[in-house]
Specification:
- The structure is a homodimer of 276-residue chains.
- By secondary structure, the first copy, chain A, is of the alpha/beta class.
- Chain A folds into two domains: 4-161, Creatine Amidinohydrolase, Chain A, domain 1; 166-270, Creatinase/methionine aminopeptidase superfamily (Creatine Amidinohydrolase), CATH 3.90.230.10.
- Chain A is elongated.
- Chain A has a six-stranded mixed beta sheet with strand order 4-3-2-1-5-6, with helices on both faces. In chain A, strands 7-8 form a two-stranded antiparallel sheet.
- The first copy, chain A, has helices at 12-29, 39-46, 77-84, 106-116, 135-144, 156-161, 166-189, 196-209, and strands at 33-36, 58-62, 69-73, 91-94, 123-126, 149-152, 247-257, 260-270.
- At the A-B interface, helix 3, helix 5 and helix 8 of A face helix 3, helix 5 and helix 8 of B.
Amino acid sequence: MATANGFGTFTQAEYGQRLAGVKTRMQKAGFDLIVCQDPANMCWLTGYDGWSFYVPQCVLVHLEEDRPIWFGRAQDAKSARLTTGLPETNIVPFSERLVQQPVEHPYDELAQLIRSRGWGKARIGVEMDAHYYTARCHAQLVEGLPDAHFANNHDLVNWARLVKSEAELVLIREAGAICTHAMNRAIEKMRPGVPQNHVIAEIYHAQSMGVPGAGGDYAAICPLMPVGEGTSTPHLTWSDAPLPDSGLTILEIAGVRRRYHAALTRTVHFGKPPQA
Amino acid sequence: MATANGFGTFTQAEYGQRLAGVKTRMQKAGFDLIVCQDPANMCWLTGYDGWSFYVPQCVLVHLEEDRPIWFGRAQDAKSARLTTGLPETNIVPFSERLVQQPVEHPYDELAQLIRSRGWGKARIGVEMDAHYYTARCHAQLVEGLPDAHFANNHDLVNWARLVKSEAELVLIREAGAICTHAMNRAIEKMRPGVPQNHVIAEIYHAQSMGVPGAGGDYAAICPLMPVGEGTSTPHLTWSDAPLPDSGLTILEIAGVRRRYHAALTRTVHFGKPPQA
């Protein structure tokens, strides 16, 4: 049964299948161990679901370890207990004093953890271009594991995530219903002279309320709403200026159900349409 | 005058002062050039304001260059034109084909840009632990500039940003008013049995509507609302389960005005307070 914050969204059998698929890919790619810091990969592998990705953290998968290992900030270890169902030995907190520390770094302790498990000479795959896997995370890890062999794992877990299970498809369809609902609410609200942020308030409200039977969650992206001249570039957000009497506005939004997103873009024209 | 998306929020004189302060810090730290990928630093240095930080991009500051240089994805160059007021020569797009490319990388072209300006042997300060400055960004840059000297700039621009100007304080006070408004709306809505996501919908609505004279913007963090057992850890979000008849809920939210945040945390107890 699904409980707060996603714990229980998927069966342990499904997590087992995900892990088995990832291990097959690791063997093929020649890795003993992968270090996954991408928040979506951490969640997909274990269920871990906390807004803690602004500090270094990760999930380790080793070929010879039955379950993934969560590594993160001490105050977030309880989130791991509540959301993952991992055994206590596979939840490893790092010291609070390492948070945003100029000299030492959380990944010094990650290197110690890896050595303490006897994996100091492992072939390690890391997510070289993952958001939040910073240059310093990598540098400290490499420095702390001089006998290991590092390589980019080239989105190994992201590729494994690409084919969705039936349980995931249920959530994505709910996300789609939420997205449609939010887009309709936005378009109803869009009239010349309405402040842009009033439209955004409707979108966020609808995204969070969700649809009957499926409450909404936060999106990985805020609503994008370029207006007028701004429609010639894709990633502008909004202001509190009024919508124009004529011209274009683009809306790009997501609906989200337990971290699963469905996205939609629509173009709205105000005033008399231009001649072809 | 402030226009859509923050362009014009600050005077060019203020951007000039910011740049001068940063150059003084660069000289003291022994850098000719710094590469700033932290989205907040890019915005503070130039006004650049697009939701494009999920691809590599940056602002360069060189001691001998009058203005910063924006480097980013080709389709975002127009955002730079609309939000920064930088001269066209200081807006340098990278090729679209480099986006999420397994072999080449946008920072290959950044290295070319730096060499083409005659800075190939520069002492370069990078933001080693900045969000989005990934391990791969750094590796490609170092590989592309074999004669340069790289070092961690240790949050040089973040430290410069710490002392706020009068114009910034105006925005932070508005953000504070928005945050108070959103917190009050949330607490009014919080009753046993109300689905958690209904409270969140009120918060997002209030955050976006803002207060009279100051519309709200998106926050760098979603509302945090651990409930019951979840209050023993800080970074859990919400579900669509109802609020409990008794026990604790914590709310941690921000109000935001043109990217400036003010944050507030409150604890709400339902039911009969426990005996001391």
